[in-house]
Automatic annotation (TrEMBL), chains A, B, C, D, E:
GO terms for molecular function: chloride channel activity. Its main location: membrane. Keywords: Cell membrane, Ion transport, Membrane, Transmembrane, Transmembrane helix, Transport. Coiled coil: none annotated. Belongs to the anion channel-forming bestrophin (TC 1.A.46) family. It comes from the Bacteria. InterPro entries: YneE/VCCN1/2-like. The chain crosses the membrane at residues 12-38, 50-70, 228-259. Pfam families: Bestrophin_2. It comes from Gallionella capsiferriformans (strain ES-2). One of its GO terms (cellular component) is plasma membrane. This is Bestrophin-like. It is found in: Cell membrane. It is a multi-pass membrane protein.
Length: 313, 313, 313, 313, 313
């Protein structure tokens, strides 16, 4: 996620980090080169004058606007939903921690020495592990090593063998909840309340997996790309008779906005990746870990992550 | 559901799988042939010059844009809702399994030998059956044979006689819940929590049935088709005087986007079918089965489904 | 609700059932006649040439597009909300039936002989009555005769005297719930769960009443109609100088889409009526009745309603 | 709220009630007068010909369409939200009444003589008072006199001294709930269920207050007005060279739609007022009172409010 | 937040407070100056005539409209969400106060002398502190001094050391809830209900933090700005040949709307700041404090905040 204040005025034109220019440089240059060639030859190819006035572009512009507007909104909705889901995870983790600490009847206050032996600490630290595991799952990276200090040994050994680590952790959570009930430290109503927080965390995780596994239907992407390409590459023929040597410049602007909007859509459509406009999952997970470690009174020296080169991962 | 990374640049134009080109080839060819004919005759039919400038198309473009944009959004919303509902089913199945395993008081741990005789196993395996049954219901295929290993014999015999199998299974679930309460393995509060998960699964299933049984009002489809057809088939007369021999080409592009958008809308409007852009219900149900069998410690050798020729069913 | 598969190609133009053509034939013919007259006279009225180029129509097109798009979306939202609310009623009825049958402690299994004397049967059959009553309320038809076999005699006599039958039935439901609690067949938590299902049914019914009693603000409808009428009736003057004898044809297409969209909006804006594009409430209520009668093991010979002449009521 | 069926055809043009014409007559006449003047002088002012073709209007039309569409949607959303909130109040009042009558254990049936001395009656009648008080709060009118028969004397004396009457009434409701619990007429679970209904009513009331106290940001309104005014007042200069003596007519139509849409937005943006397109709060509150008085078996002769001159207040 | 009634007619043009004119004066003047220069030289730069008809602007207008409309909606959604979240905080605080006062069993009525020693008062006053702390967190200002009278001394000393004050306060709330349960003043079901209100407050706070920490993706802002700048600065070249000396005037209007919409989006996108169109958090927190102090019968002389110079902070 790119975090920077907006520079004013003409300095806007000299920012590259966070613009999507790097992804579209190639096709943009080809397009401008074509426009220059068309301008040079006045639209003649082998002595055949290609006449395209602005009218076809107004007509094709209609479905193109529908495609672009639609896909843009759909991609941004996915981005926002992804962000909200992680916000939900942050929140439910806080609620869950508060509930573990206050609703579970306890013999004495938390002591740092007890560590994962205290069921309340074990459950809270396991939600930290849950967040990290989910992040790795969504980014297709390996979670096992990072989770070692957060789980009891037998749990940690188990996770390398299961297909869905967050799901497994949540089952373990359920087992600890059962334990509390068996030990009469929790009555049914309060257990149901804690169980509801667990369901909410599971829900957010499942929705993240859904976003990851279900892209916007491929046919949209395909039709949008095709239409945008045809539009931009035919555009010089439509403009050259009217605006002459300004053609490559105008084509460049139009192509920049179309290809740029398209490339940006590609980035945020799958918001859990590593590209600059994706969500800052590392920072969110760090924030969860700090929150929860503070809640159990753990001494730690974790600091919130800060943007590097305006970019927070 | 089509899963493939987007090919870059001009390779985009040589993808057929997942484009909707196959559905619209016929009408597209007729349209281009007409445009060619019009170009050839310069718009004269029996010596009557049909004069249509671009203006009528700008005017008709207005309601057409409203129709297309509206229907596209409506169809995609149905697709997304369908996907979310199945995501909800996946999720609530996980929650339900966790609750069965942890909230129901049990004499001992799960043993594979007990099989469907153990009420916890029976309930969890029945949710697997529920998913499969719902999928078959939505796709109008026969569920009975697939459900045999997942149900106790008398239940399985019953399902061929009931009108709505998922609904019947949920009633059986309720009966088992009652059983647990009668055996004092569950107090009222926890039973209410489990009952709420069951209600959520039922809710998602009912919403899927609603989507299946209530199409977008037929009149929209009809008006959209008529307007799009008239627009595309009249277009050559409007363009031929301005852009000459480029007419068939431009008409082809416009018609491709309009008919394509329309055909795609048809596909995803009813997202539970078997066409390439529909939801991958087979894969989702397989995922549920793997999840839940893992949860009850069942030894199985099910693998997640993989896309075949980029297409996940 | 019209249920038919989309005919392909040019057969589209010969469908009348489900098109809104019948509602707009009059105004469309007047409009085309005017356009023909204008073409004949070349736009001269009493030797005053009315000059209107396409420009005014582009300008008026702006607010018209906003009106049309807005009203279309607003009307469709009402339609979808109406459908979802009835989906919710279907669902909550199923949940409610499951809860009555399983959460209420019972001495023995359901027997057909007990009939409405068994509180579980009485409550479930009363929800069938609730659906029918709500349907009649929304359609301004008389519910009393249809409800006779579904209620105990004194209840049935009472309903002809109350202002809101569904509301009264829900109060009776509450009384039976109280009865179960007094007889200790239900503890507080489970009663709260059943009460929540009743609240959900009441909520959906209240929302249906809200949709029925609150139309889209009349001023929108008025402004939209006026603008659309002015647009279409002035259009011939704007087109005749450019496209000559094609004017009536183009005016006909534009007017068909505008008036058609408007008439369709009128139909689905109030989705509980009897027009072809309205919701199939008869079929939904029949479905509920079959579901619930199956649930209580009642022998019946009800069949789901089928479309007549493509139209499901 | 205006309730009338849509008149067909040309009678549409002779409706004034419910059109927003009265609010915009002034500015519309000025605009048409200017257009007439411009037509008369052919756009010359002191011998300087003001040349504005249609092009600037197409360009300004772009942001104007965004403004108008946006504000229209935002205003209508507020209107719909307001309506839904009152629907929620209606609903939760019904649920609350059902819960009071059935979940609270009672010694005997309701008797009319007991009046507000019976806690169930007192709570239900107080919700009637709540609705009236909220309506008065939203409309900045005085609630005190209307509430006298609905509250016990000491409560009624108190309300003239509190800042937020509905909030105070809800606290009193909480006190009565506590009373029921202290008298063991309600267990914790059922009290929580009733408390949830009270929270829902409070939620709807708080959301109404939010809508009232937070208008659409003033800057939007300001920019929209300025752009629309400039557009309409400059329009004659852009049209006069093309369409001559039709200019005032076309300007009149365009201005009517723009100013009308704007004025309508103003009305429904704050949906709790007294203008014709606002919500019929009087009728809704009357409906609640009839519902709840029926529920407690009170003899009353209240009738639902009916529209006066097509307008329901 | 700017609160003023809309002035009518031409007085609209002489309002500066609340318009965003001050933020965009610079760029607007540069743009108009350029337009004047271009008009003066008829678009010649060093004897090279820059020919740009209106066509390129129609084409660039397409993506620009998508960008502007999208960003405008996205920014306004954030604004509305922010407002709703604070509405939720207001509401849940009221609910929470009602629950504390009525669901917690108490020996006697509230007495002003008890002060924070009474757990009910302590919890309610702490929610006041919570609101203030959240406001300061969202505005990056210092909360510590303002919270002193609202917390018990040891809590107040602690807050200067914690990273997230609202989160800490909520944990303290949980501790007091535990206390009530340990003292048997609350059974499990009612504790769960109060805990749910606390979760709702935490949820709203977490969502506010999410809005603050996650801006609209920077690339959108960047592309929008670039496109709008290019559009407005090239516009004089496109208009000068058609409308001559009116060019600077029309360019001024177009630029005002584009830059103004953009600047307004910047303001409301982050709705918790101090700019005139931001939310009136000071007034909301004051309102909460008055509500809750009234609820516990505290004598205070707080007054609701009033707008200063039409602006409520």
């Amino acid at each position: 996620m790119i975090l920077r204040s907006r520079p004013s005025g003409f300095r806007l034109f000299f920012i590259f980090r966070g613009s999507v220019l790097s992804q579209i440089t190639g096709v943009l240059l080809v397009n401008i080169a074509l426009a220059t060639l068309v301008t040079w030859t006045h639209g003649d190819i082998y002595n055949h004058k290609i006449t395209l006035t602005a009218i076809p572009f107004t007509l094709i512009g209609l479905p193109l606007a529908i495609f672009l507007g639609f896909r843009n909104t759909a991609a941004y909705d996915r981005y926002c939903e992804g962000r909200k889901l992680w916000g939900e995870i942050v929140l439910q983790n806080r609620n869950f921690a508060r509930q573990c600490l206050t609703l579970v009847e306890h013999a004495g206050p938390l002591t740092p020495e007890a560590g994962l032996g205290d069921v309340r600490v074990r459950m809270i630290v396991r939600t930290i592990a849950f967040s990290h595991a989910l992040r790795h799952l969504l980014r297709d990276t390996d979670a096992v090593s990072e989770l070692k200090p957060l789980l009891v040994p037998q749990e940690w050994q188990k996770i390398s063998t299961v297909s869905n680590i967050p799901d497994y952790l949540m089952h373990q959570m359920g087992r600890d909840l059962r334990l509390c009930m068996d030990e009469k430290r929790l009555d049914g109503c309060l257990a149901a309340a804690i169980d509801m927080s667990m369901s909410s965390i599971t829900a957010a995780a499942a929705a993240c997996e859904r976003i990851k596994s279900t892209p916007i239907p491929f046919s949209y992407t395909l039709m949008l790309h095709r239409t945008a390409y045809l539009y931009c590459f035919l555009l010089p023929f439509g403009l050259v008779d009217t605006i002459g040597f300004m053609t490559p410049f105008v084509v460049g602007i139009v192509a920049y906005t179309f290809f740029g909007l398209d490339a940006l859509g590609d980035e945020i459509e799958e918001p859990f990746g590593h590209s600059p406009n994706d969500l800052a999952l590392d920072a969110i997970c760090r924030g969860i870990e700090i929150n929860l470690r503070d809640a159990i009174g753990d001494k730690h020296d974790l600091k919130p992550l800060l943007p590097v080169n305006y970019c927070l991962m």
